[in-house]
């Protein structure tokens, strides 16, 4: 006679299959979320750079300072690109890898007998 705490192999297999199915669906949902976020990120309009500040007029008799508006705009564009690559795309890559690993773990559990 089986004790109430022991489970039969078929019950254990069913529980493993259900857990594996939940893990697979969780991993696929995470990968799907990443794809929707990436789609929204790439469909978003490109932000425009702020206009260059006006160059102050030099005082009479003084030599004018070199125009640095292009350098300022290039620096601003570089910071925006670093923000895009550093935060958004890297976090999407990490989430995609995590979702794939979770789904693969669920598939591995599904295949165990």
- Percent in helix: 55-70%
List the helices and strands in order.
HH
Sequence stretches where pLDDT stays below 50 over 5 or more residues:
none
Radius of gyration: 28 Å
- Largest sheet entry: none
- Please, what is the average pLDDT? 76
User: What is the overall number of helices?
Assistant: 2
Overall 3D shape: rod-shaped
Tell me the number of strands: 0
Query: Beta-strand percentage?
Result: under 5%
Keywords: Membrane, Transmembrane, Transmembrane helix
Region (Disordered): 48-67
Transmembrane segments: 18-36, 89-110
Biased composition (Pro residues): 48-63
Brief synopsis:
The protein is mostly helical. The protein contains two helices and no strands. The longest helix is centred in the last third of the chain and has 43 residues, at 69-111.
List keywords for this structure.
mainly alpha, 113 residues, rod-shaped, 2 helices
What this model shows, in words?
The chain has 113 residues and is an all-alpha fold. Among the domains are: 13-44; 71-112. The chain is built from 2 helices and no strands. The chain has helices spanning 9-43, 69-111. The radius of gyration is 28 Å and the shape is rod-shaped. The chain crosses the membrane at residues 18-36, 89-110. Keywords: Membrane, Transmembrane, Transmembrane helix. Residues 48-67 are annotated as: Disordered. Residues 48-63 have a biased composition (Pro residues).
């Amino acid at each position: 006679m089986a004790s109430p705490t022991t489970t039969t192999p078929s019950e254990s297999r069913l529980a493993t299959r259900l857990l594996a199915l939940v893990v697979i669906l969780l991993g696929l949902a995470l990968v799907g979320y990443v794809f929707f976020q990436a789609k929204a990120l790439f469909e978003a309009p490109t932000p425009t750079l702020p206009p260059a500040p006006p160059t102050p007029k030099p005082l009479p008799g003084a030599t004018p300072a070199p125009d640095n508006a292009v350098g300022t705009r290039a620096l601003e564009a570089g910071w925006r690109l670093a923000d895009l690559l550093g935060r958004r795309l890297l976090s999407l890559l990490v989430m995609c890898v995590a979702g794939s690993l979770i789904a693969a773990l669920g598939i591995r559990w599904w295949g165990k007998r």
